[in-house]
Amino acid sequence: MKVLAFEDGYDIEALLISGSIDMTNIEFVQYWTSTDFLEKIKQFSPDVLLLDHFMPPTRGYDVLVALNDAVKRGEDKRPNKIIAMSSDQRANMRMLNIGADEGIIKFNLFNLAFWPRD
Q: What is the pTM of this model?
C-alpha cells in the first residue's frame, strides 16, 4: 500500500507506528508543506492520501478541490482512499462534504479499519 501524507506539524508515520500499525508493506511518504501538491500526488500515485486541513501554503481542503478538478479533467487518478485528518473535526467535515472518504482527528488515525495491524 502506498500512503502519501500532507501534514506540517506531526510525524504521521510515528503516530501510526505508536498506534500499532504494521508499516512493513506500506510505502509511506510525508510532505511537510503542500507546495506542488498535484505534481507530488501524480508522481507518487498513492493508494491512500492523508490531508491536513491547516497546511501551508495550500490548505487540505483546497488540495482536495484541485485534485477533484484534475481527476474530472482526466489529468490525475483519484487515490482509493482520501482521508481528512485535521485536528479540527469541523475541518474534516468540510473535506468530507467535497469528497473525502473519511474524516478523523489525526491523533486517532491509527483507528481506521484498513490499516494492517502488528
A: 0.95
101 touches 47 (CB < 8 A): no
| HSE, side-chain direction, 13 A CA sphere, residue 98 | 17
Distance of CA 103 to the CA centre of its chain: 10
Q: 3-class SS at 109?
A: helix
Q: Is the dihedral of CA 24, 108, 94, 51 positive or negative?
A: negative
Instruction: Give me the average pLDDT of each 10-residue run along the chain (118 residues).
Output: 96 95 96 96 97 93 97 94 95 96 95 87
CA atoms of 9 and 61, how far apart (whole Å): 17
Distance CA 104, CA 89 (A): 7
